[in-house]
Amino acid sequence: MEQVWRAHAVSVLAVVLAVGVLSSGSPANETDQFTLPTDRAFADLGPFMERVHFEIMTEMADDLNKELARAYMGNRRYDIERLTAPGTVADRFRSSFAPGFIETMNLENSLRTRRIRDAYPDQITAYRTLGWIYAWAHLPIDPRRLVLLFQSSTINVHGAYMGTDKIAHFHDLGHIYYKSYLARLDGGMTPEAARDWVVWFYSKGPISESFTIGAIATGVVSNADLASNYAGMLFYQNLTEPITIAGETLPPMLELHEGYWRVAYHVRPESGFLRPFLTDHCNEALNPCVYEIGMRGPIRRRLRKDSARILTVYADESGAVRDPEWFRAKAVELRTFYGQDYGALVRERKMFSIGDACIFPGSDTPLDSTSLAEETTPASGDPPHSTLVSENASETGHPDVIRIW
Prior knowledge:
The chain has helices at residues 2-24, 46-74, 77-83, 86-94, 100-110, 114-119, 144-147, 165-186, 191-204, 212-218, 223-240, 293-305, 307-313, 324-333, 354-357, and strands at residues 30-31, 151-152, 154-157, 160-163, 220-221, 243-245, 248-250, 254-257, 260-263, 290-291. The protein is mainly alpha-helical. Helix 1 (2-24) runs antiparallel to helix 8 (165-186) and helix 2 (46-74) runs antiparallel to helix 3. It is globular.
């Protein structure tokens, strides 16, 4: 009975936390991986991200071990069980970062400091522009235009483009997913049933991307957000237990050795331990969003107008433009996390890949034959073709955030 009560209590707490995240504005951050520059390369921030995560794990293990030493000396069994519990490890790691929206702003600032820019000379560490795809997506009187003022920059992590908001989703909502998952296990569910429940509740429930947090707040249901949340849950799970991604078993990142925590040998800066989690699933250009009817026309026209630049950004390794079917197949592939259901919302007529919307060489029209006249157009006329201006040159942060944003 007590276990059932605890399961319900933690589930209620997860709902409250999700409401808090919603009110903080974190889920309302939108990002744009379509309108990217082609004249400079993006810095690969994968090693930087891994160093930050490695240092947090190391410090966290040291702190837990100090508390464990005192607990062992006093033979305090409750404290020993608590300090060696997976949920405690997840909580300690999560507490190393600020709440979602603030974490995104901290990361944005840290990536524009002189110290970061000096580490990646002549490369883009974070990019955003006023001329992004959502600039003209809503009517001028639509209050959601205010929400879309909070634009997340695009970054490159191990070769995958994603918004800075995806890192906050990974840490914040990934933690909420994981604690809800543990609560369902405490309530007697199997791991598979617990994971399915969490995925359903936060992707299609009352407080979810497809309802309150995404569709209502901005008119955008981001499958990339859902994938980031799910990958974050897997990350927290992998802190203390093995998991399988893409057929590969990943050993725990933290190990209990003779009663004390230690960081596993395979978790080192630049070892690639974050690669399985931060992937193309986080890229909203490759993993299409679902848009409400009024947004589809303006966004589709913008993609058609910018086809040449978009296809250049996503050319293959030799610089050749990929064919439309590559983008369509990629979008289908990213609907699951290497075969695992993360709750992706699929609405074929309300979403479109680059392969559907862009004009490819040798073709005057995109594959997508949907008439724009069938879709409401919020703004009058086509949005102006803005020159892309990177904010990478502005220093808005403080060098001290280089380690933990």
